[in-house]
Amino acid sequence: MEYSRFYYCALLIISISGLVFPVMVGSIGINYGQIANNLPTPDNVVPLVKSIGATKVKLYDADPRVLKAFGNTGVEFIVGLGNEYLSKMRDQETAQAWVKTNVQAYLPATKIICITIGNEVLTFNDTSLTDHLFPAMQNIHTALVNLGLDKQVAVTTAHSLAILEVSYPPSAGSFRKDLVGCITPILNFLCKTNSPFLINAYPFFAYKSNPKQISLDFVLFQPNQGIVDSKSNLHYDNMLFAQIDAVHSALASLGYSKLPVHISETGWPSKGDADEVGATLENAKKYNGNLLKIICQRKGTPMRPNTDLNIYVFALFNENMKPGPTSERNYGLFKPDGTAAYSLGIRGTDAVSANTTTTTTTTIGAPAPPSPDSSSPGYLSISAAVKVSPCLLCGAFTFDVFVVVSCTNLRMSCLVA
Ligand SMILES: *[C@@H]1O[C@H](CO)[C@@H](O)[C@H](O)[C@H]1NC(C)=O
Ligand SMILES: *[C@@H]1O[C@H](CO)[C@@H](O)[C@H](O)[C@H]1NC(C)=O
């Protein structure tokens, strides 16, 4: 009975979808830094990105190998123009050539949606760099206009939270006074071009510099009393939300309360030097695991409860050639060999190997018990991870993994039938 079989399938899909999909829509971004000499090839990174349910990737450059590998994957990209190129972009011809080679060439197969011009430029206090920032942003934008791409590709720059003079309480957030002069034209530009304001926010730094005063649970999104901002009366149960709302306040104080704020970086290192308090595997696991759950729940901050968080986790890989303290080389969710740096408490991320290809047809076996320290060889194949990825994190229950997988299979058998 073809009809009843179809009906049965359709009914199942509808009811299963109804069960699972409403909770899965938050969209995860990940930073793909490559200051390392031991990372997997970009082709092998595609399944890793999918395994954590990430649909957005941020690069610090416009690596052609990466942009090619992610063609036709549906993953959205932010590409970066490094600080060292800002001065060159004062020349419109050069800006035009850069956009042609690094952006236009990959569209539309690779969904490049944004270009960040420089990273944390304003907090270097280097006027020779700062002076080039806004002109470079303008010229890159003009290049996009000339190529008819300005409606699909935004131009912005990513800031360090240190551009704030006051970040606590959130309602008192304000920009460093000496930066207001150069931030204002940038804000005006972002507003006019419909582009987001990007901030890199690390509760880890706040905790590290003041571990006696700051509650670890508050910074790690663990259950805690939280704080009440006495001016706004808003309750905060985690530091990241307080930091984001401080940015909202700073923007509002200059008249840009409507500018969308995206978190271009946040994360927690799994290892650090002896003086880097809090940089442990357990803490990284809690911070990033809880963060991903919050993103998937589509929670907003107390000041913007109905606005999705737009967060790019830092970072995909541990990067062995980064200078600085040990923590700098240990922000990755993955080790260079493609295994998880630690368990995020989320099924599917623990066992995906960069070596496996998407043609693997391994089926899902019995769920492994939660592994506290990662790296138990996996029950979840890449091909499965790819299909179920967005649901995986958000369900966070073994049950959902099975439901979603059978949903995928059902869909196929229905189409065939
Ligand atoms: C930049 O200047 C500000 C304000 O004068 C200061 O607080 C900050 O430490 C400086 N940053 C660097 C990296 O020198
Ligand atoms: C990946 O595959 C290569 C060649 O088959 C092998 O030498 C290497 O050990 C594998 N790496 C991992 C992480 O499985």
Automatic annotation (TrEMBL):
<protein>
    <recommendedName>
        <fullName>glucan endo-1,3-beta-D-glucosidase</fullName>
        <ecNumber>3.2.1.39</ecNumber>
    </recommendedName>
</protein>
<keyword id="KW-0812">Transmembrane</keyword>
<dbReference type="InterPro" id="IPR044965">
    <property type="entry name" value="Glyco_hydro_17_plant"/>
</dbReference>
<comment type="similarity">
    <text>Belongs to the glycosyl hydrolase 17 family.</text>
</comment>
<keyword id="KW-0472">Membrane</keyword>
<keyword id="KW-0732">Signal</keyword>
<dbReference type="InterPro" id="IPR017853">
    <property type="entry name" value="GH"/>
</dbReference>
<dbReference type="InterPro" id="IPR000490">
    <property type="entry name" value="Glyco_hydro_17"/>
</dbReference>
<dbReference type="Pfam" id="PF00332">
    <property type="entry name" value="Glyco_hydro_17"/>
</dbReference>
<keyword id="KW-0378">Hydrolase</keyword>
<keyword id="KW-1133">Transmembrane helix</keyword>
<feature type="transmembrane region" description="Helical">
    <location>
        <begin position="7"/>
        <end position="30"/>
    </location>
</feature>
<dbReference type="GO" id="GO:0005975">
    <property type="term" value="P:carbohydrate metabolic process"/>
</dbReference>
<keyword id="KW-0326">Glycosidase</keyword>
<dbReference type="GO" id="GO:0042973">
    <property type="term" value="F:glucan endo-1,3-beta-D-glucosidase activity"/>
</dbReference>
